[in-house]
């Protein structure tokens, strides 16, 4: 009886010791699984595009995709698509969305030069986009976009970002933020020699485009620390939008440098705005900062222009209404 009782006590003791061990082991497994799952959400997957890739590939660095559209289409929140160096003669569409904590990112590969070249044939559709971002919380960075037959880069989803983009020599807009792209950001970009359909003061297509704009429903957009020059239309503008922040940009030698039209509660501050003698866009009305309404949608009011350095323009500050 004593022996039986001892066995029973021993078994109870062992059960008490094993229960915490098992619990700790299970807890560790759960925490470990959560960590790797959470890390996947936080850091995301990485995909690649290269000029010698193939869209039937898995998109790894050794077996990259061929088109930016293919790579952009597989992105999930937190994922990154690296575009390897080279020139891409293709249009790009980015439909995928990220989140505030885990955006999707399309980036030139570090240390390599990435050029998307429309060679004035792409896109073929009227007012089409060489690079169109439709998803939200999407970042495009460190890519050159040039010679679009129409628009260079268009951001149309909320909370999108263009960072360090070079947009040049496009027939129409260099970079435009419009439609649903509220709360978006364009920062550290170079935008020049766009609106070529207006070159030499012509309107070959009957329209009027710009270098860099926040427009037509895209509210609370920030345009910051960009260089904008030699565009054959407004260099930097906001129109038919509200609460645009235009700050710390260098804007010069555009047909019209900065233009605020049909906007409310917008702020233009801390910009350097000037014209140099004999610049390619020089004209008797070449304005530094101009304000005016064309559609009165909305009628402009409550805008702030402060602490800008404006010099050398035919008209440094200019007001008008359509």
Question: What descriptors fit this protein?
Answer:
alpha/beta, ten-stranded parallel beta sheet, disordered N terminus, 322 residues, nine-stranded parallel beta sheet
Helix and strand element order? HEHEEEEEEEEEEEEEEEEEEEEEEEEEEE
- Give the strand order of the largest sheet, numbering strands 1, 2, ... along the chain: 1-2-5-8-11-14-17-20-23-26
Rg value: 27 Å
Structural class: alpha/beta
Shape: globular
**DSSP, total strands:** 28
Percent in strands: 35-45%
- Mean pLDDT comes to 89
Largest sheet: 10 strands, parallel
Concise account of the structure shown:
With 322 residues, this protein is an alpha/beta fold.
Write the layout of secondary structure elements.
Blueprint: H1 2-43, E1 46-49, H2 68-73, E2 80-83, E3 86-88, E4 92-94, E5 104-108, E6 114-117, E7 129-133, E8 138-141, E9 144-146, E10 151-155, E11 161-163, E12 166-168, E13 175-178, E14 185-187, E15 190-192, E16 210-215, E17 222-224, E18 227-229, E19 234-242, E20 245-247, E21 250-252, E22 256-264, E23 267-269, E24 272-274, E25 287-293, E26 304-306, E27 309-311, E28 315-321
Parallel strand pairs: 1-2, 2-5, 3-6, 4-7, 5-8, 6-9, 7-10, 8-11, 9-12, 10-13, 11-14, 12-15, 13-16, 14-17, 15-18, 16-19, 17-20, 18-21, 19-22, 20-23, 21-24, 22-25, 23-26, 24-27, 25-28
